[in-house]
Amino acid sequence: MTTIIDEIIQRPHEGPLATSPKDFKAPIDVRWCAGCGGFSILAQTQRILATLGIPKEKFVFISGIGCSSRFPYYVDVYGMHTLHGRALAIASGVKIARPDLSVWIATGDGDGLSIGGNHFIHTARRNVDLQVLLFNNAVYSLTKGQYSPTSLEGQITKSSPLGVLDDPFNPAALALGAGATFVARAYDRDAKTMQYMFERAAKHKGFAFVEVYANCVIFNDGAFDEFTMKDSRPEHTVELIHGQPLVFGANQDKGIKLDGFQPIVVSLTDGKYSKDDLLVHNEKDSTLAYILANMTYAPGLPRPMGIFQAIDRPSYNEKVVWQLEHYAKAPGAGDLEALLKGEDYWEI
Amino acid sequence: MEKKVEKLDRVTIRFAGDSGDGMQLSGTQFSNTSGTMGNDVNTFPDYPSEIRAPEGTLYGVSAYQIQFSSTRIHTYGDRIDVLVAMNASSLKVNLPKVRKGGLIIANTAGFGKKNLELAKYETNPLDDGSLKDYKVVSLDMVSEVREALKGLELSPKNVDRSKNIFALGITYWLFDREMNSTEKWLQTKFGKKPALYESNKRVLQAGYEYAKNSDLFPVQYKIEDAKLEKGIYRNITGNEACAIGLTVGAKKANLPLFLGSYPITPATEILHWISGYKKYGVKHLQAEDEIAGISSAIGASFAGYLAATTTSGPGLSLKVEAIGLAVILELPLVIIDVQRGGPSTGLPTKPEQSDLLMAMYGRHGEAPVPIVAARSAADCFYQTIEAIRIALKYMTPVILLTDGYLAQGTSPFKVPKIDELPDLSVKFWTDPKTFQPYKRDPVTLARPWAVPGTQGLEHRIGGLEKEDLTGLVSQDPLNHQKMVNLRAAKIEGIVNDIPPAVVEGEQEGDLLVIGWGGTYGAITDAYNQLRSEGKKLSYCHLVHLNPLPSNLGDILKRFKRVLVPELNSGQLRTLLQAKYLRPILGLNKVQGLPLKSDEVEDKINELLEEGK
């Protein structure tokens, strides 16, 4: 059954593709605060969009509400700035309807994990083929400084002047637990890694979740400095590289080894262990992904950065298409006169 | 014995038994057969809200009521003429609805000691004289069925289960029904199990023969055909009519269909039906919640689909914020609300018309939404098409109100030809040179529908107030005023695109009855009855509730008194009083039950008496 949407889907792109990041800049001022982590995320996204070989008109950006959710206004493709928390549900509708589109979501720790938590877990579970960029600044910024579901216990915010009592979500573990097939973590100061992960996310067929530590200069400045500043980062983070041992430290002198299921830090300089003893990252290993994600708040362990997991599983939108294709060949397919009549009819 | 034959105009029959007794099946077959024979038919299945209620209990009673007639009818009947009671509980629950002098056909096998205890009867009502105001026929259907199936190799369970078919056979003789349509149905159903086909056919015949030959049934009744318009007919529930309406409407719009929905009584069957329509190219998402249901539909609409969401009261409450988004995005969306008793969980399986004011006003900000309401199960099809028409033409969410009574009940549906249905085709905007996201059509004030994938039309929309024409974010005070006015004018302008209200009966005078939605049947039957008695009154039924038809104000001026019967505390009455600044009378029932024509008649008679 062809409909007028088929003409839109099949119409070839005329002229050369947009290949400059500039082509993806909307003619509008970006209204984030100076120094906001969002600027870098936006710039890296525009850079990657220009390299994917996808016509501009095939990109859709969907967002909810929050500082991060202004994102679609700044990207010169199709976009929709929607309801607080609902971006993933709306994006699911776009992608299920139109698998030909490349659908991206910009969300935050409040929008995506608090009010939108339900949609987050279920969209991950269904493995809808979406790129989800979650700007984690561990605070509500647009409402001017309340704690969020990733704020740390004890954090002082406007709505927790005496300290947060909640325990935070671990977004990577939550995504894995919900069934996300691609789970990664990056941070705003590292443009190269972000680009790599956005590209991988774009090429992943399924729910691709990238948590980005984004500094909020106004309400939670420096929250991630330990993991993102040049001087402290090497000692406090470990980079996950597929097929490589987990080595970290300013002098690459430490590593992560598994003791049972427990990751532990070992020295590579005291002669007891070599790189060969270390845990080797495998992004296809779901069990390992859980172990690595659980290092996030573990005291004494470096924080993992990189791709926790990238596994293949048919996406929901693909399965919808398969089902339709299958039943398009069923007896009586498309016969709406028969649908109207039903099985029990009579003639007068 | 020689049997008498009597002619009747209309009969209301109710098959009642335990949840597991197959009453829905007997009722459906009786109804389809009667339709096939040319009677007008109206039905209501009435089953318990418990999934598997304990056997034999009062709350486990399941029933199916049919009114069939040689004239046009619009309800399933206020009073039961014939009650088939398969057990004691089903008699107890349904007896209050049986008219005095009515016939009760009781299956004595369901009136044993345990049945009587579960039904909380001290003595057996079949022989303690308590039913002296009724005609009672008692027989043991289970032993009759066992007798009829002697010699066939069937499990005792399968034998006893066919007692509902035996009861059906009895009623087929009693009302001179043809058996071939049910036999054909049995063949389809049991085609792969010839033993069951054979046994059910035999039991149907046995029931028929039993009634024919027994002294217990001295009279056979004939109900002539209703001389309905020629054509193909079927019975349809309101929910199936909505599902087919969405599917056929999408075809007429030349758009693919997407349904985003979350299960909720009594709207769920729309989702059930649609989810089975893969061979018609329909996409659906059973979402994680009501909000995701409508949100995914908004996404699909942005992507160029005819998008819909289906729900009932509590779900509509949850969707309210998203409806506001669809209003400001100005995207087409069909929202079907199958109303049920509220507030909160309320009466989940029972009908009410109490969501009208929520549909009208239940959003923050100035967010007008067109509202249409279906008046019968079959009309759910046409009003779904109408909701689609308005949504697409005016780029707006539209709320279609039905209710639990229309959704679950059936009425005969004259099957339309697809070619004869209105053309709903739309065009996407494709020209980049002239494109502005909020540049409106001068007539409809609809904005262009520019869908992703169209080169050169890349644009952003959202929930923040838009600048006129460009759709860019704007905080400008005068622009906000302008956009609020434009959105209102667009919805108000639909008034020029809907039929005027029609008054039946006197065109001016003393008393005008105004109805909306599912109370149409009860009011129409009452109106027809009173008119046939020579009484002067008028009736106007509203399909469009926002905007209201343009001539309604003039109509109201022509009548001294106006009565609005509705299943709420006066919601349409409130709207009419506010808009037309005149007093309106109400007949308001909020019992979780459909309106009865008797109740409307009584109220009108009371008013006519007062007016003398």
CATH class of the largest domain in chain A: Alpha Beta
Could you give a short account of the major beta sheet of chain A?
A: 8 strands, mixed
Unreliable segments of 5+ consecutive residues of chain A: none
Distance between the termini of chain A: 32 Å
CATH architecture annotation of the largest domain in chain B: 3-Layer(aba) Sandwich
Indicate the percent of residues in helices of chain B: 25-40%
Shape of chain A: globular
CATH class of the largest domain in chain B: Alpha Beta
Helicity level of chain A: 25-40%
Q: Provide a count of the helices of chain A.
A: 13
| Backbone CA Rg of chain B | 27 Å
What's the mean pLDDT score of chain B? 96
Query: What do we call the CATH homologous superfamily of the largest domain in chain A?
Result: Thiamin diphosphate (ThDP)-binding fold, Pyr/PP domains
CATH fold name of the largest domain in chain A, please?
A: Rossmann fold
Description:
With 348 residues, chain A is an alpha/beta fold. Chain A has two domains: 26-243 and 283-293 and 302-336, Rossmann fold; 245-280, no CATH class. In chain A, 30% of the residues lie in helices and 18% in strands. Chain A has 13 helices and twelve strands. Chain A has an eight-stranded mixed β-sheet with strand order 2-1-3-4-6-5-11-7, with helices on both faces. A three-stranded antiparallel β-sheet of chain A has the order 8-9-10. In chain A, helix 3 links the parallel strand 1 and strand 2. In chain B, the strands form five sheets. In chain B, strands 11-10-12-13-15-14-21 form a seven-stranded mixed β-sheet, with helices on both faces. A six-stranded mixed β-sheet of chain B has the order 3-4-2-5-6-7, with helices on both faces. Chain B has four domains: 4-222, 3-Layer(aba) Sandwich (Pyruvate-ferredoxin Oxidoreductase, domain 3), CATH 3.40.920; 234-420, 3-Layer(aba) Sandwich (Rossmann fold), CATH 3.40.50.970; 432-490, no CATH class; 503-611, Rossmann fold (3-Layer(aba) Sandwich), CATH 3.40.50. Chain B is 37% helix and 21% strand. The mean pLDDT of chain B is 96. In chain B, helix 6 (163-174) packs across helix 8, helix 7 runs antiparallel to helix 8 (194-213) and helix 17 (520-532) packs across helix 20 (597-611). Chain B is globular. The interface between A and B is large, with 69 and 81 residues. Strand 12 of chain A pairs antiparallel with strand 9 (232-237) of chain B.
